[in-house]
Amino acid sequence: MRHEWPIVLFGWLSIMLMQTAWSDHSMLLHYVGRLDGADAPFVTMDARFEMGMTSYPTKFQRPKPSSPNKDFYVYLYDLVIADAYLGPVEFRLYGGRDYQRLIATFAREKTDEGDLYLLRPFIEASGQYLLRARLLEASNHQIDMFFEQKLPLAQSKQHRRDYAILLSLGTCLLVLFSYVYFKQRKHSRGLSS
């Protein structure tokens, strides 16, 4: 038994390394997937309308890196008549310094899901954004919402964590096979004597 303690110690250390790597990985999954992945909701209002939005990481496959990576669910509420606005809207998403860069334009004739408009933009970086809605059946009334988007950790960091998990699993397997090999070797020497 005294010759086996280094193998047991090495196996225990490998398991601790694997547990640490996995906990970091699960923290990333928790960040991306908490409460169905919803980001904090944003709401703005002016004298006539209220606009609210919640964003989620898209649930669809992304064939290209520039494919939409966010789903924005937007509602518009008419404060004067106290009812949801369900008519045609033009949405424009701006980003960059002073919100000068137009990222995407969305035209909707009506809501997509119940009282919600669904927008699927590609958000390339964490930062501040502006969503501008022009309500076509409300005398082209325009309402602006400023909001912040935080993207999950960079892919490279995620891959590093994945490699750490694979390395830990490989190390555990190596320890297990080494233990079995040396145990069989010791047992076969005992038989040949």
Q: Count of helical segments?
A: 2
Give the helix level as a range of percent: 25-40%
CA-atom Rg in angstroms: 27 Å
Amino- and carboxy-terminal Cα gap = 20 Å
Poorly predicted ranges: 21-35
Q: What would the average pLDDT be, to the nearest integer?
A: 75
Q: Which architecture of the largest domain would the CATH scheme give at its second level?
A: Sandwich
Provide the domain count. Answer: 2
* Main CATH class of the largest domain: Mainly Beta
Shape: rod-shaped
The beta-strand count equals 9
Reported for the largest beta sheet, the result is: 5 strands, antiparallel
**What is the fourth-level CATH superfamily of the largest domain?**
Macroglobulin (MG2) domain
Helix vs. strand class: alpha+beta
Q: Helix-strand pattern, N to C? A: HEEEEEEEEEH
Percentage of residues in strands: 25-35%
Structure description:
This protein is α+β, with helices and mostly antiparallel strands and 193 residues long. The chain folds into 2 domains: 5-30 and 155-187; 40-149, Immunoglobulin-like. Helices cover 35% and strands 31% of the residues. The protein has helices at residues 5-33, 155-192, and strands spanning 42-45, 49-57, 70-78, 83-84, 89-95, 101-108, 117-119, 127-135, 141-149. Strand 3 and strand 4 (83-84) form a beta hairpin. Helix 1 runs antiparallel to helix 2. The radius of gyration is 27 Å and the shape is rod-shaped. The two termini are 20 Å apart. The relative contact order is 0.17.
Summarize the structure.
It is built from 2 helices and 9 strands. It is α+β, with helices and mostly antiparallel strands. The chain has 2 domains: 5-30 and 155-187; 40-149, Macroglobulin (MG2) domain (Immunoglobulin-like).
